[in-house]
Amino acid sequence: MLPKKPSRTAMRVASWRAAHQLLDAPPLVLEDPLAVRILGEDELARLRGTAWRERNPASDSGRAFIVARSRFAEDELARSLARGVTQYVILGAGLDTFAYRNPHGQALRVFEVDHPATQEWKRVRLEEAGISVPPTLSYAPTDFERESLAEGLANAGFSRQEPAFFSWLGVTMYLTQPALDATLAFVAATPAGGGIAFDYMLPLESLPFLERAVLSLMAYRVARVGEPFRTRMEPPEMQARMARFGFRNIVDLDRHAVNERYFAARRDHVRVRTHQAHLLSAEV
């Protein structure tokens, strides 16, 4: 993050979620009408004016993974409610809209954790879009690398005595391993019944040559805007890490499993193609 600047990648992710609502044929993987509204008129006009750019294998794949990971987290959250979860923590919330269309109503309290600059920027966009903040939502501005997640959540009213589910999308690759481990340790110490869902990146050397070249260029670009990739792991290493923290029922989906779960019935070309796409969920 650049000082006092919102996340540039958060806007790109929001654009992909909105593009899914506008460009892709039903059935949608992620039904999110607020994704279009929160984008803002200027960005929405740009998206509509350049919609043709989204019609290519690379954009289809990127968009597919973004909506699949949000759907995955929301599906895992829904399952966790049957285990007694009453709190949902969205780590690195960006322009995510779940809290403002929460289908679980008063039964679920939502906490959005993000960098203070990004969170302030989001709240301005919500006001401009006419999207109200529900009473079930609490904001917890936190810098993952410099502040304690425990302190940020405590200040927002999070209860360490109640089970909680955490989503952590598009974040782990930007953290150092100590910061990643600190968050996993915090989640693992919450009461039984909760859990976590997140995505992570594979090491460059594990990818095919062409994909490695594309990802290297992406890494260069995000580093230039102050958001460098820092952590990548092989699936066995990540799964072993989760087990060491005491997580149970670990599920790790590669691109084939993601496509089978969310895109098998589609007749268009929207599906995940990148080898680095991994979604993981686990229970506390």
Quick tags:
284 residues; 7-stranded mixed beta sheet; 10 helices; 43% helix
Tell the overall outline. globular
Instruction: Indicate the mean pLDDT.
Output: 92
Radius of gyration: 18 Å
- Supply the helix-strand structural class: alpha/beta
The N- to C-terminal Cα distance equals: 30 Å
Specify the helix fraction band.
40-55%
SSE topology string = HHHHEEHEHEHEHHEHE
Describe the structure.
With 284 residues, this protein is of the alpha/beta class. It has 10 helices and 7 strands. A 7-stranded mixed beta sheet has the order 3-2-1-4-5-7-6, with helices on both faces. α1 crosses α4. The radius of gyration is 18 Å and the shape is globular. The two termini are 30 Å apart.
Strand and helix map with partners:
Elements: H1 8-23, H2 34-37, H3 41-49, H4 57-81, E1 87-91, E2 109-114, H5 116-129, E3 137-141, H6 149-155, E4 164-168, H7 177-188, E5 195-200, H8 209-224, H9 235-244, E6 248-253, H10 255-262, E7 278-283
Helix pairs in contact: 1-4
In short:
This protein has helices at residues 8-23, 34-37, 41-49, 57-81, 116-129, 149-155, 177-188, 209-224, 235-244, 255-262; strands at 87-91, 109-114, 137-141, 164-168, 195-200, 248-253, 278-283. The protein is α/β, with parallel strands linked by helices and 284 residues long.
